[in-house]
Specification:
The chain has 130 residues and is mostly helical. Helices cover 62% and strands 0% of the residues. The protein has 4 helices and no strands. Helix 1 runs antiparallel to helix 3 and helix 1 crosses helix 4. The longest helix has 35 residues.
Length: 130
């Protein structure tokens, strides 16, 4: 198990670092304070003179792009999910998720085995090595 854990970590470690970084950037863009739109941007949202929204339609202008870090949220999310790189990017993202699950369980399993072997040998100490 240790051999698999080490070899897979060499390959997937790069992708997991990339996914973690883009996920953090996506969340940071979500909580970043938004820039207030200018008067010109708000005026551009107004419908033209005499415009009437047809029945059953939802007529609302898109929110103005004020720029800033918060406007990058969609981009970071697409990179984080692998969508920006097509089907191969999505497949690597999914495989990286499975690899993260494998690393979690195999690391815990290896630790429990080392701890039980240490306990059987009569070594003193707690759950952690010094």
């Amino acid at each position: 198990m240790r051999k698999w854990h080490r070899w897979l970590s060499v390959f997937f470690g790069i992708f997991l670092f990339f996914i973690a970084t883009t996920g953090l950037l996506s969340q940071a863009a979500d909580i970043w304070p938004e820039v207030e739109p200018t008067a010109a941007q708000l005026a551009a949202q107004e419908p033209p003179e005499g415009f009437i929204c047809p029945d059953g339609w939802r007529c609302s202008a898109p929110s103005p792009d004020t720029g800033g870090f918060a406007s990058w949220k969609g981009f970071f999310h697409h990179i984080h999910s692998g969508e920006e790189f097509g089907p191969i990017g999505i497949a690597i993202s999914i495989l990286s998720g499975f690899a993260l699950l494998f690393f979690s369980f195999s690391g815990l399993w290896m630790y429990i085995r080392m701890w039980s072997n240490r306990k059987e040998r009569g070594a003193k100490g707690g759950m952690f090595w010094k």
